[in-house]
Amino acid sequence: MKSGQSGTALYFLLFLIVHERCDACDWMMSQYSMKSRSSLSLLKDMGGEMTSVKGPFPRLVYNEVMKAKAEDQVRFLAEATEQIIVLFSPLTAHVDEVKWDGRALDNFLNILDTRQLKELKQCTAAYAERSGRSWSERKLRRHFRKLKEILKKSNYSANSLERIRNVVQQHLGMMDIITANVRHKL
Fold it and tell me: Whose CB has fewer CB within 10 Å in the chain, the N or C terminal residue?
């Protein structure tokens, strides 16, 4: 093959790889913010007034993720979304105790699970495989384990559920910032 032809073939191959990556993450560029706003609205609507009761929040983890490459940020967003789903799924059994709107909780979980997580995982699949989880993903998992412990130790009290709802609201807000950062990088 002549050098001009090999250069053209290499250019075409790179075009296909970049194009595939863009197609896989296109949803994130165009739809993520809308779905995120909907899930945040449902989070607010599922309970009463959002309380000022604060819970633990991993600010350092988010600060580190903001400095990461776009593909690592997308992986982190997928992990955070999955952890929120895992945290909130068992809460459907406790909505009556805290007078949460069960329909809003179900819709919240549905948006996160069937739209955001599915699309984020599809986007991450466009990137090269890596072994293990990043430091930030491991720290995030530990954080969510602590949130689950808070709920269990308090026997899913109304106060602990509101603390968790407040923390998840912070997560969703930070995830929006990361998404804007990813859009800028892509």
Answer: N
Asked if 92 and 106 count as a contact pair (C-beta separation under 8 A), the reply is yes
Question: What tokens were used for 13?
Answer: 């191959």
Residue (of 127, 125, 120) closest to 31 by Cα position: 120
In whole angstroms, give the CA distance from residue 49 to residue 180.
27
**Which of 54, 7, 45, 43 has its CA nearest to residue 160?**
54
pLDDT digit string, tens, across residues 104-163: 999 999 999 988 999 899 888 877 777 678 899 999 999 999 999 999 999 988 888 889
* C-alpha distance from residue 151 to each of 40, 44, 148, 154, 155 (Å): 21, 19, 5, 5, 6
For 81, counting Cβ atoms within 10 Å of its Cβ (0-12 exposed, 13-18 middle, 19+ buried), the class is buried
Round to whole Å and give the CA distance between 87 and 68: 25
**pLDDT, tens digit, 9 for 90 and up, residues 149-179:** 999 999 988 888 889 999 999 999 999 999 9
Question: Quick check: 136 and 76 in contact, CB under 8 A?
Answer: yes
156: left (phi over 0), alpha (psi -120 to 50) or beta: left
pTM as predicted: 0.84
CA distances to 11, 38, 170 from 52, in Å:
54, 21, 12
